[in-house]
Structures are given as structure tokens and as C-alpha cells.
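Q: How would the C-alpha cells look for this protein?
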Amino acid sequence: MADERVYSEQEVSAIIQRAIELSEQGGPGYQPGITREELLRIAADMGVPAEAVQRALRDQGSETNPPPRWHFSEQFERVVEGEVDPEQYDLIIEGLKPMSRQHASGASQIGRTLTMSTWNGFGQSLVDITSRRGRTKIKVTSNGFMQGLMSLYPAFMGSMISMGVLAEKGNAALGVAIGLALMGVGTTIFRWLTRRGHEKSQQMADRLRERVEEALVDQNATTGTVVAAEKPLEQRLGG
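A: Here is the predicted structure in C-alpha cell form.
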């Protein structure tokens, strides 16, 4: 009997993450998100007790919008049960401010996938909405590029000018001190702006999920009305 390889928990996590990435590249069998039952089944296959999973779910549910740690880029994903009609995408993203790119609109739609670059109030967010195989996936990605242009770049230019001018006057040490102070202030502002941009992106993901849920309710109500209208007259009258 051939030896069967045993994978560590870290390897299993990396393999599953890579499999998800590959499936999101357009595999025909891909379905965004997993249900609670599927999560329990995966955990059972990995030897994790169902009680531990239930406790982890309760712990996650008790954390209402925890303050995110600072990162240059953050990604927020939401999955809604139900396949929304792509014709409703315009209503779902209504109110978002698109960021134009080289004379092109900030929003583009290919099939059942919509991609949009939008301003979140503090920086740029990239919105992706995909609806297929009975579920709708929302992904909002936030990065600190615009915040860097608004804070780090002016601070850097100011520090360079200050050091150059003061060095010519023989006060190089003072110039370095002022330059470091400007960069310190710029870095603090950059981190604050980036964190606020991430918070706005998280709120945007939650708001888009609510809109998708509302669109699904309206969509199901409309479908039910159409189906009822197609019934024979005597059935609709209860005859």
C-alpha cells in the first residue's frame, strides 16, 4: 500500500486558497461563497469538530465592524444567495462616483460581471459584482494610492525643497530636521486617510449587499406577478 501524504494545516489553508483563486478565474463549475452546511462539512473533513466551527461563527458574528488594522490595501467580500439580473446593476451602483480612466467611464460590464472604479470619499475603491450559479458576489478593494498622492507626495516635495533651501544658507541640519518632520506629518496623514478609505470601502460593500438583497426581493416579486398572470383565468379567479 502506497504511503498517502499528510498535509499540515498551513498547507491545507494555502491549497484551498489557491484553489479558490483558480476557480475565480472563470471555471465553469465555480460558485461564489459557501453555505454553513458546506463549511461544516469541510471542517469535518479536516477533523475540526462542529462545535468549534459554531463557536467560531458566533465569535465572528459578535464582531460588528471591527476597526481594521492598517494595510496599504484591503479587500471586502460579500456573497448573497440569489442570482440578480445584470440589468439591475445600474440601480445597485446608483450614487457611486465613478473615476474616469483615460476618457473612459469608470464602470464596465462584461456578461454577468461589473467592474467599477469609484471614489469613496477618501480614496479609490474598485468594485466587482458577479452574479452566476445562484449567487451574487460583491468585492470591494481599497488601496492607498490616491491618499499617497494627497499626503506623502506633498510632504516629500516640501522636505526636498526645505533641505535644499536651508542647505544653501548653511543650515543643512535644520533642513534635515524640517524634512523629517514634514515626512512624519505626511506619513501620519497618509495612514489616517488610508484607514478611513478602508472603512468607507467596507461600508460600501455592506451597502451594495443590501441593494442586491433588495433587488432580489423586487426581482422575485416581479417574477411571481408574471407567473400569476400567466395562469388560466379560472385558476386566478379560484374556479
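Strands lie at 73-81, 97-98, 107-110, 113-119, 124-132, 135-143.

The CA atoms of residues 53 and 108 lie 39 Å apart.

Upvote if useful.
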